[in-house]
Amino acid sequence: GKKSKNPALWWVDGAREEVRWSFEELGVLSRKVANVLSDACGLQRGDRVILILPRIPEWWLMNVACMRTGTVLIPGTQQLTAKDILHRLQKSKAKCIITDDSVAPAVDLVGAECQSLKFKLLVSEGHREGWLNFKDLL
How far apart are alpha carbons 75 and 51 in whole angstroms? Predict the structure, then answer.
């Protein structure tokens, strides 16, 4: 068939870099992300996931993947402090946190105080000790 002129996601950053995904592409990618959450992270329906990312394409993928897996998405802003993150982790009993290089250090400061936190997923080109790299797993 013909490719739709109306993408499911059309994202443009400040440097005018674009990401355009059709509904089919978004479906395929979100299934892959759902597999990362359920296989690599062992998350199951009802498990809580804290997502702290800027509004990048991966933010949208994580949202759709959480719907697919039945996990409970708890979004957060990158302005959260380590104390804020600790509070959210402890109250929600989240098993997984997903963030980038800018927030990961704050998570590392408080992560040991959260017994329920089993998986830390980093959306980054780089790697960090104790974190799973999302792009590698995808």
Answer: 5
